[in-house]
């Protein structure tokens, strides 16, 4: 039963796997930075691509993290915004040395999830009253519900991806990255304990014949 419940939640509720991000900042600083960046501003021109197509972001600060939603203008009605399809939930946890781990997972908004059913249910009533064969009617009904679910899920997934990218872009200056160190055993690297003039002369002797 638990496996079935998890499968249903992954298909009908969550629209993106959990994403973890480590930043060199305290949780309050992360929340403040995200909230300030939700609106276009001339002081943040490097974030202008986040607001293409009239996209807007909304951040609610919580005790242990934040919730974010987004929507954009409709191409055929620029002054009208589309539905808010997904909710991104981010939780903070301490990582030591003033670092914070942000775990983010997106789910479909409940009202948007319920919006999957009206049109397929209306068409179902019409199809049942039609003189077509039961096999065809059942196939069409299943197809209608599947297409409605797929379209809604795709929209929610795209919004979730936009929000995760927003968080990564806004906090990219404080993201903690691990840079691999060069090995001192590498023949191309001269470390402090080695005699540089001696190593340079060795390199020169080995390559002087190539010129």
Low-confidence stretches: 177-184, 188-193
Helix and strand element order: HEHEEEEEEHHHH
Shape: elongated
Mean pLDDT: 83
Q: Which descriptors apply to this entry?
A:
211 residues, two-stranded antiparallel ribbon, 6 helices
What does this structure look like?
The structure is a single chain. The protein has 211 residues and is of the alpha+beta class. The chain has one domain. 41% of the residues lie in helices and 24% in strands. It has six helices and seven strands. The strands form two sheets. A five-stranded antiparallel sheet has the order 1-7-6-3-2. Strand 4 and strand 5 form a beta hairpin. Helix 4 runs antiparallel to helix 5. It is elongated.
Could you outline the blueprint of secondary structure elements for this entry?
Layout: H1 2-12, E1 14-23, H2 27-36, E2 56-61, E3 65-71, E4 73-74, E5 77-81, E6 86-96, E7 99-108, H3 110-114, H4 118-128, H5 134-170, H6 196-207
Antiparallel strand pairs: 1-7, 2-3, 3-6, 4-5, 6-7
Helix pairs in contact: 4-5
Concise account of the structure shown:
With 211 residues, the protein is of the alpha+beta class. Helix content is 41%, strand content 24%. It is built from six helices and seven strands; from the N terminus they run αβαββββββαααα.
